[in-house]
């Protein structure tokens, strides 16, 4: 049997409704045979060629949102302080999602949110303006936790060269910041954006508003991988002090529970349509899209804060044969904003487009040799996905 990398399924299967395949482990895309119960409804998960996210989105688009809103009001009243103290925490960098959640909590529901930010590695000019507009229009305070620049550069470089993952260091820091700040400021309610159930094979999670604290707590420090290396090995480096890595270490589960911190998906209570969220943020928070189309896709309003965003999606395409246009088109097909035929055409046109705009700047900033980067890309092309023809890499399987 032909070798595969990244523990990917050998057989490539595309969803019959959207354009995603079973090759993206981050989303745990599968075509299941069993049934999942969501509330009083059963979600048919037979192998009918439709991926689990499409099935979950179908329920999401037909949810009783008035009932969910009553649940939200009950939750907010439980935590509402009304004395000027912070009663909830919203992590974000000023993108459309965090702007949307913050503005609604502040002005529709009368909460007093604190916001916190683990800033992008290389802010784009328009991303930084959106960050400023977020805080200005929502009239909220913001805590920024920015690690030492040389530490982020060092670890990001390692993430690229060790595991071809430009965002691994950023994601870990971003993931861990909110519970720590909530504990420090005695805030017991944290809101994240959409539920993970919208993108993976755990549709039963869609019936649960709470974020599992196992995703934000530490059980065994030896299992933490940072920059493609065990964090305990990084402790031995002469380049890094142990204290420099404290920001990347999750809070303990016991501390979360001792402090009574609840973490909820705002998307559980509010219908989550990225396009509508963008329009809301545009009209109410000063959020603005890129002045040009994002490399690798047809859109320009999502994941635009960091110059490394485009490179991240390109490396995803290398590893899994799935690019930014695939993820964008799949989501818009599920929301009935695109037909599948339109999605297929967009994927064929834009998926895998090389991110030229910021590439040289990123390589120079991280001190990575370009030839070394391309060599690493070739090492991560799984032979069951890629073939070389006339000195050019070609995907063996493309959506139809």
What do these coordinates show?
The chain contains 15 helices and 13 strands. By secondary structure, it is of the alpha/beta class. The chain has two domains: 35-62 and 289-395, no CATH class; 65-269, HUPs (Rossmann fold, 3-Layer(aba) Sandwich). A three-stranded parallel beta sheet has the order 3-4-5, with helices on both faces. It has a two-stranded antiparallel sheet with strand order 1-2. Strands 6-11 form a two-stranded parallel ribbon. A hairpin with a 2-residue loop joins β12 and β13. The chain is globular and about 70 Å long.
Overview features:
11% strand; two-stranded antiparallel sheet; Rossmann fold; alpha/beta
Strand order of the largest sheet: 3-4-5
Second rung of CATH, namely the architecture of the largest domain: 3-Layer(aba) Sandwich
What CATH first level of the largest domain would be assigned? Answer: Alpha Beta
Here the CATH topology of the largest domain equals: Rossmann fold
Layout of SSEs?
Blueprint: E1 35-38, E2 41-44, H1 52-60, H2 65-79, E3 88-91, H3 96-108, E4 113-117, H4 125-138, E5 142-144, H5 149-163, H6 168-184, E6 189-192, E7 217-218, E8 225-226, E9 229-230, H7 231-234, E10 251-252, H8 253-258, E11 262-265, H9 266-269, H10 274-285, H11 309-320, H12 324-334, H13 340-350, H14 356-366, H15 370-379, E12 386-389, E13 392-395
Parallel strand pairs: 3-4, 4-5, 6-11, 7-10
Antiparallel strand pairs: 1-2, 8-9, 12-13
Helix pairs in contact: 3-4, 3-10, 12-13
């Amino acid at each position: 049997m032909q070798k595969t990398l990244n523990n990917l399924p050998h057989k490539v299967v595309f969803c019959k409704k959207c354009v995603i395949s079973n090759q993206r482990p981050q989303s745990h895309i599968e075509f299941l045979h069993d049934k999942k119960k969501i509330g009083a409804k059963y979600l048919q998960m037979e192998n009918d060629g439709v991926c689990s996210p499409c099935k979950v989105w179908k329920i999401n688009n037909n949810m009783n949102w008035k009932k969910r809103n009553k649940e939200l009001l009950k939750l907010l009243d439980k935590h509402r302080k009304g004395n000027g103290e912070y009663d909830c925490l919203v992590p974000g960098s000023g993108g459309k999602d965090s702007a949307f959640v913050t503005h609604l909590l502040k002005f529709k529901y009368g909460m007093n949110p604190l916001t916190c930010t683990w800033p992008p590695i290389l802010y784009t000019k328009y991303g930084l303006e959106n960050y400023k507009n977020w805080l200005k229009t929502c009239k909220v305070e913001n805590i920024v936790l920015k690690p030492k620049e040389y530490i982020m550069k060092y670890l990001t470089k390692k993430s690229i060269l060790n595991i071809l993952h430009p965002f691994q260091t950023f994601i870990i820091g971003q993931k861990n910041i909110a519970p720590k700040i909530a504990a420090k400021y005695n805030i017991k309610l944290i809101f994240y954006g959409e539920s993970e159930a919208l993108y993976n094979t755990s549709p039963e999670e869609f019936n649960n508003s709470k974020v599992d604290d196992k995703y934000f707590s530490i059980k065994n420090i030896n299992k933490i991988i940072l920059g493609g290396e065990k964090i305990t090995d990084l402790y031995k480096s002469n380049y890094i002090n142990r204290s420099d890595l404290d920001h990347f270490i999750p809070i303990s589960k016991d501390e979360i529970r001792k402090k009574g911190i609840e973490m909820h998906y705002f998307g559980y209570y509010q219908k989550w349509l990225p396009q509508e969220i963008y329009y809301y943020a545009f009209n109410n928070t000063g959020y603005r899209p890129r002045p040009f189309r994002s490399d690798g896709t047809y859109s320009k309003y999502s994941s635009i804060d960091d110059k490394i965003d485009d490179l991240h999606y390109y490396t995803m395409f290398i590893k899994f044969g799935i690019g930014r246009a695939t993820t964008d088109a799949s989501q818009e097909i599920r929301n009935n904003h695109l037909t599948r035929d339109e999605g297929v055409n967009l994927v064929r046109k834009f998926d895998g487009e090389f991110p030229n705009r910021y590439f040289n700047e990123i390589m120079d900033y991280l001190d990575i040799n370009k030839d070394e980067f391309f060599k690493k890309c070739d090492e991560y092309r799984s032979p069951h996905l890629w073939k070389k023809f006339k000195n050019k890499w070609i995907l063996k399987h493309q959506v139809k």
